[in-house]
Please model this.
Amino acid sequence: MPDLKVYQSLWATEKRTPGVPETPVAARFEAVKAAGYDGMAIDLGALSLDQARACVPLFGQVGLGGLLTAFPKSIEDLRPALHLAKDIGSPFVVVVGQVMPVSVEGSIPVIRDWLRVAREEGVPIQFETHRACITNDMFATLQLLDAIPEMRMACDLSHYVVDREMTLPLFPDYHLQISRILERCDSFQGRIANRCQVQLPVGFPQTRPWLDLFLGWWAEGFRRWKARAAADDSLIFLCELGPRDYAITGADGLELSDRDADALVLRDHARRLFAEV
Model:
C-alpha cells in the first residue's frame, strides 16, 4: 500500500537567534530522528556542496532517509547535486533552477536539458513551485507543464499564493489552475502563506482560513497522487518552516511562534489527510 514519509529540512532546524550559537548539525539530525520524522532534507541553497557532503555519514548513523534540493546555476551545475543525492539515498532531487529565461519559449529547452542530465545520471528530478527560479510565476509554469509532459513538480504552494497575491475567497480560476499543478506533483512541502507573507505561524487565529486552504490543496494532491501510485510507492511531505527572514520576527528579533512545534502540527495534519483520502 502506498505510504507517506514526513521529512524535516536541515535548513528549517536553524534558529538564527541573535547572540546564540547554532546547535551542531549532528545534534540536529538526532533531534529530528527523536521527533519522529522519517528523513532529513539537505538544501543546497543554504549549504555549500562541501558542507552538504560532510553530512553524508549522518544519514546512516542516525537512521534518517535523505532528500536533496538543488539550485543549479547552469545545466551542468545540476550534475554534482545528483551525485550527492545518490550518496544520501535521495529518491529524487528537487530542482529550484537558477537559469531563468524571460520567456516560456526560452525556458523549455532549459527544463529539457536538466531532464536529460537527470536521465544520464539515473536520478529523477522534480521542479519546485518556487519564487526566484525558472518556475517563479504560476502562469508561466502552467505553460511549461503543457509544453513538457514529462515535467514533474514538487509542490510548495506558499510561493504561488504570494506570487499571485491570492485573496480569500479564491478566484475560481485559481482553484482550477492549482488543480492542474497538483496533478503533476510527486512530493509536497509544508508551509502556510497568505498574499503578503510566505510563512505564517500555524496556530494564530488569523492564519486559520489560510491553513484550511492549504489543507484542502494537500488533500487533493494526496488523492491525485494515490490514484496513480504503485503499491510500494512512498510520498514525501517535507516540513520546511524556515528561519528568519522566512519566519516573522518582532522588534526584538525573535520569532513570533515556535517553528518546531508548528512543523509537528503540519506533520500531523499531513498524516491525517493522507490516511483519510
Notes: The chain is about 40% helix and 15% strand. The CA atoms of residues 146 and 180 lie 10 Å apart. The longest helix spans residues 208-228.
